[in-house]
């Protein structure tokens, strides 16, 4: 073969590989940056540009266009999550299997996943055919509805392609014999649907959901597949309902706060924020007993007010503070456990993604939920700092001895000023009546991007791209979970599951204190095995009628639920903060789990206080 032909073939292959690895990322970066810019422009237009132009509604197109771009990038980002296998799932059984059976398990998981994506792709195309026959247009921009709805066949078709790629690689790793075993197991699971003409909806719904979760299918996909099984074998709803709801359930402006808050945290974390917050906290607390431990908790509280994510807080702060604590003589397991526990504060102190998800699920004011999270977050931080202080004092772990003056504090405060402005922008904008939570989140993301690129100058173009992909992928796993939970929840509503459970519990006892204790125990158990956001979207429709019947304010219950599930971040086997802290501290998970027990008990004390003294978490609400 001529050299030129070989070179061309090699270049073509490299180009194809690059496109295969980055196809979705191109749209994710462009889409996320676009919607951040559009919503920031919408907010600025309302307060600034209207003074110079006529027509106050001229920027109404931004919200509509942003919603449809948001839906597109959500389902495109799930293809990236499929490639990375980063979807939220229960992998307790999977982790106990040998390498061979783990490979068999992945063939099963991908096959089930592929079943759902192909189904929604097919039923999504039926939506396109309907819109071709009966054209409709959007309100503001008069865009044909067929364009946003194309995400169903295109997005789920692309997911199917990525799953086939992964499945092909997994089949090669397993071999034909183990692949046949995996497919036989899949056939065994779906056989009841094929064999029986009719199955009661609730056994089908909950039975398939439990079975799929145990197998290791991502929770969102388990919700969707169990709904699909119920639709097929119980004739509950038409099968086209799945695709329709996959679109309409996330066509929501409030839900867009999730990717914006995540993007703000990612931009600020990669842009040099954590180091400046750490320096400020060190000036405030570093000279005391356990100074570095106190600094860790305080920095996690600061960072939590920006990222709204527990694992992100542990990763950003733990990477800096755990090595520093070990270097200064602290016990490695104590250091790792402390940053894991302090990271849980990130979902309590506003902004908080779990509060956004609960607010949407329960139709409760997200702004009030943010206010209600301040006191529990601060209380948790203070009890952890108290424990760190006395634990360190008993072991003689002194803080770093150096001169700390008002001048050094002022310099550290000034260096961190841009980072400290983020909570002011978010909370000030919301409670000042200037912005909705979604607009505040978009402005915070835009602010974080500008500060990281032009002020701190640590966000390079390559980092910006990486941050956008990370934010889109992380938010997509949450939002698709909410979409599939809507499908699941609608079946429960049709069968009156929440009402039946509420009547059963209230028939046993109507004592509010007992009901709250039972629900707290349930949530603590669920938090051991299930990720917090998944628990919120699944359990809120079930538990809310119970607490309302017992006379509990849904706002108060939301705070209880989030604080309770935050403890799940540090409870094995699914305690994600412990996993992140284990990686950061290079410590065994079992050792961290032992060290975190006293901190967990203190967090339970905080939970009891906010449960039975509602005036404590609601102190700032309505003031």
What is the compact description of this entry?
The protein has 28 helices and no strands. The chain is mostly helical.
Record the SSE blueprint:
Layout: H1 3-47, H2 60-84, H3 92-96, H4 99-133, H5 146-149, H6 151-174, H7 176-195, H8 201-215, H9 219-234, H10 241-248, H11 257-270, H12 273-285, H13 291-307, H14 310-327, H15 332-343, H16 353-362, H17 366-395, H18 406-415, H19 417-431, H20 437-455, H21 461-494, H22 497-508, H23 512-529, H24 532-549, H25 554-567, H26 576-585, H27 589-595, H28 597-612
Helix pairs in contact: 1-2, 1-20, 1-21, 2-6, 2-21, 4-6, 4-7, 4-9, 4-10, 8-9, 9-21, 10-21, 11-20, 11-21, 12-13, 12-18, 13-14, 13-15, 13-17, 14-15, 14-26, 15-26, 15-27, 16-17, 16-24, 16-25, 17-25, 17-28, 19-20, 21-24, 22-24, 23-24, 23-25, 24-25, 25-28
Task: Tell me what the structure shows.
It is globular, with a radius of gyration of 25 Å. It is 78% helix and 0% strand. The mean pLDDT is 86. It is mainly alpha-helical and 623 residues long. Helix 17 runs antiparallel to helix 28 (597-612) and helix 19 (417-431) runs antiparallel to helix 20. The longest helix has 45 residues, at 3-47. It contains 28 helices and no strands. The relative contact order is 0.11.
